[in-house]
Amino acid sequence: MGNLNYLDKKGTFTLDDPDLTSYMYFPLANEAGMMSSITPDLNGDIKLDQNTFLLEPVSSENLHNNKSSRNFWVYVEGKGAWSVTGRSSKQQAKLFEDDKEKVKLTAGIMWHQVERESDEMELKAVMTSFVPNTEEKVELTKFEITNTSDKEQKITSTVAIPLYARSASNIRDHRHVTSLLHRTFTVKNGIMIHPTLTFDERGHNKNKVYYGALAKEEVNGEMVSPISFCPVTEEFIGHGGNFENPYYVMKNEPLPYKVGEEVDGYETVAAIRFEDTVLAPGETRTYIVALGFGESEAEITEISKKYLITKHFDRYLEETKEYWQKKINVSYNSADTDFDNWMHWVNFQPMLRRIYGCSFLPHHDYGKGGRGWRDLWQDCLALLIMEPEQVRQMLIDNFGGVRFDGTNATIIGSKQGEFIADRNNIVRVWMDHGAWPYLTTSLYIEQTGDIEFLREENTYFKDAQIHRGEDRDERWNDSRGNKQMTTEAEPYRGTVLEHLLIQHLTSFYDVGEHNHIRLRGADWNDGLDMANDRGESVAFTALYGGNMRNLAKNIKAYEEKTGKNTITLAKEILILIDADKSIYNSIGDKHAVLDEYCESVKHIISGEKVEVPCDKLIDVLNGMSDWIGNHIRKTEWLSDKDGYSWFNGYYDNSGKAVEGDFETGVRMMLTGQVFAIMSETATKEQVAEIVKATDKYLYDEKIGGYRLNTNFNEVKTDLGRLFGFAFGHKENGAVFSHMAVMYANALYSRGFAKEGYKVINTLYKHCNDYNLSNIYPGVPEYVNQRGQGMYHYLTGAASWLLLTVLNEMYGIKGQLGALKLQPKLLATQFTNGMASATCMFRGVNITVTYQNPFNLEVGNYRVKEIYIDGEKYSDGDTIAKEDVDKLGDKSIITAVLG
């Protein structure tokens, strides 16, 4: 395989022989709902949602198995047929030969170009694909065919793209029957399908979607329509043929259909033939293909008028490139330009997740699209950095998914703030869900200084699930919607602070037999899903504890900013607040408090509100936080026989500690260490010991760094399904990027910059080496046992990596609206004593440049002076909030280190 090389500072890269990777794909999409995946041989799919696929749905295995890919054929007189995408049986047979065709990939944010050259055919093809950033739901590809011989060559060009036009569920269910619904017809520039009905989980409904494949050829500066068509798959491929050896192409027979013909009830291919042409030596012929959706034939026809013109294609391509680059308003300049480029892709990944959800790319074949509860909050982390103007209302809306018992809705609607009751009676509580909203809210408050955000209000989610998933409200029905009601039959509204308090206070009392918060269905690690009865998550108990301490600080800041010394809360919450601290050691007493509270809010609530003194709330939260920290330090710090020490992070369904020395070997999990460090449960001395232990038991440079766990050598059915996975894959011992990055974040936040850098640098070096990771730039969900990046692009790790590099490594962070500069860059990251980052802060673009004239190492320097646009601002590391508000767009901030 070839090496991946960057061409600029905007992530554009090239790669030779990309066709030698069988599992790689690239995203093409827009914000109008168009979602594509494309490979170097133009495999992949196109869809709007689970029920609306234009091309056949693919998972990762289909990328090399599937012959139903986008294709463009050129028949050369005297030589035969050539697939410009490499998808002919003859070309596939020569893939591993020394004289294989030369293939080169060049790609950037949301555009993809493949060059393929055949010595045998003496032709070169350049295929450029993108989805325009417009309201149209269309994917465009320009095919440029060049005669590389010194003689004229007569060619016949044929587009051949199989169209699927139905729901993903029909791949297996009713595949043939749903083809009978197809009404396929030829139009001037291509082929359209308008199925009569849809057959999927929604029932049998009248179809409203038109699917189309359109194409034109440029001849002497004019765009020319095709001359013939074949819309029927079995007819086009011929008896015994297939899409890599289709009859009408191999025999170079004229296609049998003209404009205005219809054929119903068959699998469809968009086979589109152009007039024969003679290419002079060096001459290039251009074709443009559009694949899209519409609500009428006229809407798709308009696509051909708008996009099937070469100069229009080129203009929309440049506009689309510029659009996405402008969206990525975070960039870096360090000694490692490859790292800066790689991070450009990482910065882009949260945008992809908002478009694709957690599915709709080939490796993400485990779901039907959409995002989960954690995703709502973690994607907002990146939004706060890159598109902050959208975030405030989004956060408020997201709090509408919280139940009054502290749990939350798990089915997320397609609209912002929409949450849906689970009609399948699947009771599922992830114990970590209550912790994530605070982390995002805290970042928002620090970035903006908007402490008054805590008193914004929203409703609560209500369905039949009550008592934290242990009971059902048989009196509930959703005739009035999914909102918590009061005795006055009105939806109850509470503040953001109230929502956060309910999430944390209920969790504090919801403990297992070791007085840590119960694991229930799972925590962040969804694979820990088989310890519902006796499982406990020490890891996330620590995080809740850290959150409580920080929330107390927020309340203090709120009191100081607003002058208000009380907080308005629902009356029922007093049950959770008024419990005496002496019961914290008593599991039974904790359960009694939680039971009393859950009983009081199980159906409707009173709607009454009370004023609670801020000092009282602060004292309660600090008391709970201190108790959690002390309890974990006292009961869960362990040492193995070799003297390595770390925190036990879990208890299994047998009620036993999960980590430590076992007959089958040392058992250690990264998650418990991350949150013990991040929450400051671990002392500085303990952090240093944890680093030694993780380096000993979890670090593996060959696969990108820190594994999620050691090999338990057991299918541990009293803890979770992950132990059924092969070791080194997904949640069972892979380098799981999300937790590895959070480990780096935690280390940086506690002053362990060199150790944090090691985590990020090892992961980056591995992922950025195409020959090791087999992925394009960016961070994957995980790295498997063979070092391959898996489930690329759609991962919460990207938001945390963006946050960690900008806020911790470069030290550009908010402090109640002030701009705090506390870089933790290593000396090797400076070039000529300089390192810089450009980003959005409080609505303006700023560039922060650090000058390190004496090449001091991290830990030996601090920000001594700040200059704004060349004028000295202060001796110190902070720009006050009122002065941040005076910053102009594109302000240059220089910080001198010493």
Structural write-up:
- It is a single chain.
- The chain has 898 residues and is of the alpha+beta class.
- Among the domains are: 21-327, Glycoside hydrolase, family 65, N-terminal domain (Beta-galactosidase, Chain A, domain 5, Distorted Sandwich), CATH 2.70.98; 810-897, Maltose phosphorylase, domain 3 (Sandwich).
- Helices cover 29% and strands 25% of the residues.
- The strands form 15 sheets. Strands 1, 2, 9, 10, 11, 12, 14, 15, 18, 19, 21 and 24 form a 12-stranded antiparallel beta sheet that branches. Strands 7, 8, 13, 20, 22 and 23 form a 6-stranded antiparallel beta sheet that branches.
- A hairpin with a 5-residue loop joins strand 43 and strand 44 (789-790).
- Helix 9 (373-386) packs antiparallel against helix 10 and helix 9 (373-386) runs parallel beside helix 11.
- The protein starts with a strand and ends with a strand.
Which helices and strands appear, and what pairs or packs with what?
Elements: E1 4-6, E2 13-16, E3 26-29, E4 35-38, E5 46-49, E6 52-53, H1 62-65, E7 72-76, E8 80-83, H2 89-93, E9 102-108, E10 111-118, E11 123-130, E12 138-147, E13 153-163, H3 175-179, E14 183-187, E15 190-193, E16 197-200, E17 203-206, E18 210-219, E19 222-224, E20 228-232, H4 233-237, H5 247-250, E21 262-264, E22 268-273, E23 277-279, E24 284-294, H6 297-307, H7 310-327, E25 331-333, H8 337-356, H9 373-386, H10 391-398, E26 411-412, E27 419-420, H11 436-448, E28 457-459, E29 465-466, E30 471-472, E31 493-495, H12 496-509, E32 536-537, H13 538-562, E33 566-570, H14 574-577, H15 587-600, E34 609-613, H16 614-635, E35 637-639, E36 645-647, E37 650-651, E38 660-662, E39 665-667, H17 670-678, H18 684-697, E40 699-700, E41 705-706, E42 735-736, H19 737-749, H20 753-768, H21 770-773, E43 782-783, E44 789-790, H22 797-809, E45 812-815, E46 818-821, E47 834-841, E48 844-851, E49 863-868, E50 871-874, E51 878-879, H23 881-884, E52 891-897
